[in-house]
Amino acid sequence: MGSSPKSVIVVGGSLAGLMHALTLLSLPSPPKVRILERSPTALLHDQGAGVVAGSETQQFFAEYVRPGREVAVISPIRHYLNRKGEIMPETVNHWSQCMTSWDLLYHLLRWRVDGQQSEHVKGLVADDRPRAQYDNGCTVTAIDSVEDGVKVQWTHMDHGEQSATADLVLAADGASSSIRRLLAPTVERKYAGYVAWRGTVPETELSGAARKVFVERFTFYHAPGIQILGYLIPGPGGTLDAGRRLFNWVWYCNYPEGSPELNELMTGTDDRRHAVTLPVGTMKEAVWAKQKAYATESLPSQFAEAVNRTRQPFVQAITDVISPQNEFMDGKVLLVGDALAGFRPHTAASTGQAAFDALMLGKLLKGEVSKDEYNRTVKDFAKTVQAHGVALGEKSQFGRHPFNG
């Protein structure tokens, strides 16, 4: 990469992009940072997704975000239910894990990166780090190496064709990365044969029986072709107050590629066949009614209750993608986070990967690791965790299960 960059374009304004932007803005001599986000809205829409805050995420927030508030609900116990809804004693593990929400992490990062205000940061103290320029509604169309850096071209939703040149470009635009598609078109994102249904329920709306197994517990249920899990996450505005938190559940179900059932599921009320995510508010009533009935038939009563009490479900198709290389144009373009490798959610590591990559970039730019060490380390992390996620998913959805209940 040579000397520290004076200007950086970050393509993608979600967690990975914001983490990398904040890493750059925290340098002793920070570059000018511009974020190009494809979404047309000023704030990315929160799907209500829970996030397991692993060690990398915790380290990044402690070192770079320094939020001045707690960001996670602690779940000190991990256990499985059988089909009757009974806790399986042999599965009880007193292993504390930190559970947070995409929404809280996003708003804390936006606050630090570009000064965005929200209920999540009310009363927190800002610092004197410079701010990034955050542009939404930008669809990247071309990227080229030029004499003075990398030229990025994009179409803006209001202002048409635009371009800018930077010393460094970070592709943080997710598993369907437009930058990766331009530079490595043979790397494909492929459907894995199943989807994740997701939703949240206010903890106070759960019955006593459900709260007994869910509150401050990481709870699982396995059966052939099914895995469902759930845990508490922060509530509205990022609150951690007991009684105001949300129960977040994730339910994996198999749908063969090209099947009528998958096409029906992923076609929303907008009549669009969505490839990866069926957004909140677009699920057809008949599809949701069928799934709620299936929950009652196939899940422990506590999980069935949570599914049936969910008001805004959404669906994500599970996919696999990994790039064999993370850098292009002599290191002037880097793939980071999901753009480098999209993990299956079983690993609970996608946010951790974004944090890990951002921490490594900080070490690289501060001279603590070499460029070769940076490249090798981020690629090894991506390859190892991506393969682990595939193994977990294939066993869970298509193989034998350790706890059939």
Automatic annotation (TrEMBL):
Task: Tell me the Gene3D superfamilies matching this sequence.
Answer: 3.30.9.60
A Pfam family that the UniProt record links to this protein: FAD_binding-like
| Top-level taxonomic group | Eukaryota
Domain 2,6-dihydroxypyridine 3-monooxygenase substrate binding: start-end pairs? 191-320
This chain's protein is named: 2,6-dihydroxypyridine 3-monooxygenase substrate binding domain-containing protein
Species of origin reads Baudoinia panamericana (strain UAMH 10762) (Angels' share fungus)
